[in-house]
Amino acid sequence: MSQDTPSSTATVPAAATAGEGARQGDAFENLLHETRTFPPTPEFAANAVVTAEVYAEADADRPAFWAKQARELLTWSKDFDQALDWSNPPFAKWFVGGEVNAAYNALDRHVENGLGDRVAIYFEGEPGDTRAYTYAELTEEVKKAANAFESLGVAKGDRVAVYLPMIPEAVITLLACARIGAVHSVVFGGFSADALRSRIDDAEAKLVVTADGTYRRGKPSALKPAVDEALSREGDAGGHTVQNVVVVKRNGQDVDWTEGRDHWWDETVGAASAEHTAVGHDSEHPLFILYTSGTTGKPKGILHTTGGYLTQTAYTHKAVFDLHPETDVYWCTADVGWVTGHSYVTYAPFINGATQVMYEGTPDSPHQGRWWEIVEKYKVSILYTAPTAIRTFMKWGRDIPDKYDLTSLRVLGSVGEPINPEAWMWYKTVIGGGDAPIVDTWWQTETGAQMIAPLPGVTAAKPGSAQVPLPGIAVDVVDEMGESVPDGHGGFLVIREPWPAMLRGIWGDPERFKDTYWSRFENMYFAGDGAKKDEDGDIWLLGRVDDVMNVSGHRLSTTEIESALVSHPAVAEAAVVGATDETTGQAVVAFVILRGDAANNGDETVQELRNHVGKEIGPIAKPKNILVVPELPKTRSGKIMRRLLKDVAEGRDPGDATTLSDPTIMQQIAQSLRK
Ligand code: WT7
């Protein structure tokens, strides 16, 4: 890999953390001019679902374009009167006056239209067990779950916390909530009891849906104990709001049981009636909350509503993946704990009547060919995954995928972090067999749906670039002053016009919503990403420009991990950086100053601290490295200079340290690490 490949992960970390803008210029200058382009094959273009005219059509009248999609893709219980109400920015209302039921649109209407026998989900469990649900069967399960949740006192507007592995019950739960108008709040199964509890408290959830556990690399892995622990402790406000816990039996492990509160899924949902009539909910009715890391310690509850979210997720799923629902088999490898598992597993594929694969486990269980075995077995035609996975497969070697028949694959998607051109080319040639287009999709939990991506039947693709805003989406790159930069220049990624799937706010905190996204530039949404427009005007994403890290496509807050570290009695001070990592994009590296006795017990303490972060936030946040140092580099005003620590973490000679309160600190750190 050349040093300065465009948007390669090597350039991303240099894109500077907040307040360190000087360095960012260098990163932009480092970009090469990518010359390779891959236009769609004539056959692909001829059969494409979406053609080039859509851009002009959308540009002519964005709200009208989206209104047309809303009416084409969804069945409204009551038609809307107005496409967009932007009279009170940044609070948008889309498809005003309309009523729509997400679950009816995802399920019942397909059955009514004679598609009841089409497979909705091919489920592949980690131990090798399989299940398939037709649309008719899935509809019935969702109706039963809806009745069961209602019988447990869950009503429209109530919040339901979901802490489940990647099993069909996860999407059944989410769609059942949507059906009755309850607001789901999924907490990723890799998060800790503490993280679960704080999210339950913030959303004031009435019901928790969980499982005894799941499987990880052939072994049972528990979930229910974290729920028990979360609900047994004192929260910030004392007690909690949870009245019932529904438990899916998945791995058969013994679980503790709280009589009256806990209910087995099989008994409760199993006994419920399969008759349930879906009613339309207001287009702006809350659909879900999903917590994501921000630049401060407290995760933000990103709020999405119904009509606009469903419209944009369904449209992009169809257009960007060139979905032909009658023939395609779609597989998105994301967990339901992340936004991709909401938009492109739970909602869009079913709204579009697609057949999808769902896999519970890890890519190397029981062997490193498991994914490709699944692709071969189900004849997967559209695969949507993350660059970190692709880089892992590259490391394992092409002889593994080469053993399988992957000729069914015709569209390959990427999401979560910049995909470096080498990984892009490998994905295209080794996995896609050369012809399959790659669609690199940029978006965020906050945007709800894809925002920047090539259209596979239209765009001549460029390795490493997400390229163009989708039809009806107004993305730009601006400088410090908010002025649009010319082609060939870099700056900050912004969104200039409201879009249907945009977040409607941060749960319970409208001010934070305005401060975080709408205060940096006037009348523009600030995404927190650095970006560059190349000579053709194509957009290259350069990674976060704030204190947010991206580890394996998962968002982590430096501040949140620092808070977790200093909450341990052995730690006096901590600073966390995201260091470039060949496989995971970035890796968490922590620098800590230990207190008194702990300092003499370095190795043991470091292990304890890793576990402590795992317990406070979750295993995914555990630092890869914890370096014990005597001091932290700070400016004279006391701000930790993470940029210098990042240099150390990445094995570079830290640059200019003259602005430090004590310029010798970097030497002291280097010395202590050599010991
Ligand atoms: C952040 C959002 C979108 C679902 C998964 C992550 C980074 C996402 C790309 C891409 C470059 C990307 C950005 C963004 N990101 N997709 N195709 N190219 N960077 O959702 O956890 O909300 O994270 O992920 O930095 O801001 P998320």
UniProtKB/TrEMBL annotation:
Residues 114-507 form the AMP-dependent synthetase/ligase domain. One of its GO terms (biological process) is acetyl-CoA biosynthetic process from acetate. Residues 1-23 are annotated as: Disordered. Its cofactor is Mg(2+). It is an enzyme of class 6 (ligase). ATP binds at G416, E417, P418, D440, T441, W442, W443, Q444, T445, D529, R544, R555. Acetylated. Deacetylation by the SIR2-homolog deacetylase activates the enzyme. CDD domains: ACS. GO terms for molecular function: acetate-CoA ligase activity; AMP binding; ATP binding; metal ion binding. Pfam families: ACAS_N, AMP-binding, AMP-binding_C. Its EC number is 6.2.1.1. The modification N6-acetyllysine is found at K639. The keyword Acetylation applies. The keyword Ligase applies. Transmembrane segments: none annotated. HAMAP family: Ac_CoA_synth (MF_01123). PANTHER family: ACETYL-COENZYME A SYNTHETASE, ACETYL-COENZYME A SYNTHETASE 1. Belongs to the ATP-dependent AMP-binding enzyme family. This is Acetyl-coenzyme A synthetase. It comes from Pseudarthrobacter enclensis. The gene is acsA.
